[in-house]
Write a structure and sequence with these properties.
This protein is of the alpha/beta class. The strands form 3 sheets. A 4-stranded antiparallel beta sheet has the order 7-1-8-9. Strands 4-3-5 form a 3-stranded parallel beta sheet, sandwiched between helices. Strands 2-6 form a two-stranded antiparallel ribbon. α3 runs parallel beside α7.
Length: 231
């Protein structure tokens, strides 16, 4: 077992053993226990009372974070020539079709989000083996397959993210940066959790939000009182 570094020990010493913090307290504390030299991501882990093996209990959705993600999101739009100008005006980093499909077939995936139109999906289907494992395959459920590509680009640039529960019933996502103010962190976390609550499957029984943890890159997790989030 590896030894804890000086900063890891200091971070753990600031977290009271067994304590559950309010969301406001956790957002302030996560800044105090982050010692990375770069701007760490703010991560949230929510354990849900669902069985992801059942199709009617799969939780998946999108949320637009009030204060964005703090990241520069590189967007590729694969669209018809008629939609190119609008996509570029909306802020897309790359816009085109056949030339980018060929680049992707050659192994190029240097983007964070790919947006396309329903009519184009037939051409993109063959890229599934490349884009799927990287989480880049456009999907109507995440809003990345749409007739209004310009609007989709704007939403992604403003902080729209998609998420889904994993096989262990946990939803994990980055919801900002440690450089955000505690208030900005709290607003993003609240929006994220409240979106999860709205997506509660009708077939889910018992406690739905089982636990919430906030952390930053390389920091310990801070347990959050779920009642302080949806209040």
């Amino acid at each position: 077992m590896s030894k804890l570094t000086k900063n890891q020990k200091l971070a753990q010493s600031k977290i009271e053993a067994g304590k559950t913090y309010t969301l406001a307290e956790a957002c302030k504390l996560v800044k105090d226990i982050t010692f990375t030299k770069f701007d760490s991501s703010l991560d949230i882990d929510v354990r849900l009372g669902v069985d992801p093996r059942k199709a009617n209990q799969m939780v998946r959705g999108v949320v637009t974070l009030p204060n964005g993600t703090g990241k520069t999101v590189r967007v590729l739009v694969l669209c018809s020539p008629e939609a190119e100008a609008a996509a570029k005006a909306a802020g897309a980093d790359y816009v085109g079709l056949d030339e980018y499909i060929e680049k992707i077939k050659g192994g190029w995936t240097d983007v964070d989000v790919i947006i396309t139109q329903p009519a184009i999906m037939g051409k993109i289907g063959a890229l599934g083996r490349i884009l799927g494992p990287r989480g880049l395959m456009p999907n109507p459920k995440s809003g990345t397959v749409t007739v209004d590509v310009a609007k989709a680009v704007e939403e992604v640039k403003k902080g729209k993210i998609d998420f889904k529960v994993d096989k262990n019933g946990i939803v994990h996502s980055s919801i900002g940066k440690v450089s955000f103010t505690p208030e900005q962190m709290e607003q993003n976390a609240r929006e994220f959790v409240n979106t999860l609550i709205k997506l509660k499957p009708a077939t889910a029984k018992g406690t739905y939000i089982k636990s919430i943890y906030l952390s930053s890159t390389m920091s310990p997790g801070i347990k959050v009182d779920s009642k302080s989030v949806d209040a």
